[in-house]
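Example 3.2
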Amino acid sequence: MREIELLAPAGSWEALVAAVQNGADAIYLGGKAFSARQSANNFDDEELIKAVKYCHIRGVKVFVTVNTLVSNEELKALGGYISFLYNNDVDAVIVQDLGAAKLIRDLFPDFEIHASTQMSVHNLEGVRLLEELGFQRIVLAREMSAREIKAVQDNCKADIEVFVHGALCICYSGQCLMSSMIGGRSGNRGRCAQPCRMPYQLVNRRSGETIKSEQGDYLLSPRDLNTLENIHEVLGTGVKSLKIEGRLKRAEYVATVVGAYRKAIDQYIMNKSMSKLESAMIRDVEQIFNRKFTKGYILGDQGKQIMSLEKPSNRGIKVGEVIGYDKKRQRVEIRLTDELRKGDGIEIWTEKGDSPGAIVEVLTVKNEKREVGNPNETIQVNFKHPVSKGQSVYKTSDIDLFQRAKATYERVERRIPIDGAFRGRIGERIFLSLWDQEGHHVELQGEYVVEKALKKPTEEDRVREQLMKLGNTTYVYDSLVIELDGDGIIPVGELNSLRRDAIQRLDDLRANHNSRKAIVAQVLNPKISQWFSDYTSVRRAEPNMRVSLNNITQLKAVLSFPITRIYYTDLASYDDAHMLVKGHPIEIVPSFSRITSDEELKDVHKFLSRSQNQIRGVMVPNLGALKVARDLGFEHIYGDFTLNVFNNGALKLLQQWGVQEAALSPELTLKQIKEIMAHAAIPGEVIVHGYLPLMVMRYCPTSAVVGKKNQQENCSLCRNSSLGLKDRKDMVFPIMTDDHCRTHILNSQSLCLLDHLHEIMDAGVGNLKIQFTIENAQETRAIMEAYSSVLQRGKMTPSAETFLEEIRKNGLTKGHFYRGVELYSPWITRLGVQVELPVPAAGANSI
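Structure, written as tokens:
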């Protein structure tokens, strides 16, 4: 294994082979459940076993994604699935869910685990907290710069992995609720519907005015990441693993991109400097798929440099311009600026903003059929959609590139160098020894005993010829030493049989990379049952109202109401807020931004150290902030909903880390909440009202649209105006910015569970939270009056009913309280909550 690892995606068997044969050091793939790319083909159990063996024989590691949030029911099934992965020699699992991470560490302590980028780890303290739990690798947030990444890698023990190519999420991964709240398809559950690839308009919510975008309406659609020509800068951070995104991409894409990065990395390793890459290879990477390219936050791109505002999908490479269109014959005439072949795919960009496309089935030049059209030629191709003169023509698929990419994995085998020694002495059984550079060694005696030749003895060249016939195996000899008695005879069939058996044994040794003893059901089942045992019982909780506030105005509006805790987000005015709360039986708690860089964490540390005497508790939104609060000795640490608590295992882990209470994920149903609270290690909290934050972004859509040269003007517009993003259905999603210019997109409709409070409390949750964001003082008071009246009377009151009717006029949502998020396929049922473990692979040892 190289010191620098090239990690490739595999959403299908063909993509896996393409990645391996083009130089990947490791593969990441998903099973049929627990995977954040549920729309990929993914691998069933038999395919996964086959994939691990195929990769291990060729010296490639396999990491399996378990990178989604997991419900309690699924967590029970997960134990069986992890044992299957463990028993079948998977090298590591990639995890998002805190409960899944704890289960794996507790029950499979020697199984390597990696923190998915879905864990939203974006600071050093978050990395260190996961190191404590036993994570060997952390995939950092894609919003981090090379300087920030290097600072983390230089100060931690874990391996750091970063994305270097492929699609980007506009929201910090693991923090997006947009697909979930709009359509019930959760990105945290592997079902993202990609609402970021839809058109939006920037609007002023007060005036209704649309702020027109000159460059396009895809205001949330990022370009694809491409660091190929700057890979030396990425490697300069000292990271262990370079990750290519693309489990939804076809095998030709994987072959092209992996092959290019393999060459770039190898050049860097050899020369320790910027790689000199062939322009044709760079072009192939652009042609195979691009939404335009960006070097990403990792290499300093910002704002519009990150975004594909004009078009959210593959744009290919421009190859010409429309000269004319014959409606009757449905043929377009194109003046080429680049080569175009029969079998290529094209798209033509129209004034309407759409991009009709076609496969070039017939290509003519001056009425003569041709296979290829060359630059500066005028060609004609069939095209059903009317287009206009001057419109740009893009080649979106290249038949020649596809064929060349296929050849790299259909006709070529990745070769493993081996050495061999053969002995054939008269009166002794034939003997063959094989060994590779990783230390695997096979010694095998055949059944045949060498006899003295009566006529013509077997010559050394004949023996060598037969032993060298490695055929379609993955091996090639570096050396082969042959020792023969000069007058002995050895049948060719015996040589072939010995070679085949020895190669098979070498395959078996290489395939069993981790040499684990299989875990069987009789051992694991009691451990899983014990892990899930808890004696807490459901009870109706006493109501305990909390509020999250953004400013002094909101604070003054809530002080007269019966609340027990305030989460206060504006640290600049925290001292004033603290003074206002004095004399009230209310705990005021500083609440930090859900994204806190290492520089910002230093400020958090200073703030908490300075104010430690007057602060009783701390609300933590991410793992880094949690570690800072814990290390400072705070006994009252509360976890925010951004920690994605989706099961009891997550609560157990947070308790282990010193958290006293935690907000539950807003993607849970009432039924799931009740199940969690029946066995909760620490008290839970549920958000019952507010405009839920759907996204948090480092990118600012206001700057992208308005484009004022003076950044202060853009910031002033953001902070002093009521801006929002309007979608195709005229729903407007409010925009907020924090002190560090991160953009927060709120839901277009307010969550309102006013008429369900008794159900939540019957489910065992007494801690109810109202999430105030953009509400003014009047709106804040109205919300507090409605909820206070219901809690005091224990039922809906006339004033509460009136409030509910008013809010319904503007639209409200029950979130996932009843509908939930889309579950995994029926395959999850096959895993069974009875924790029946799969049979270990043939030949596996057992304990």
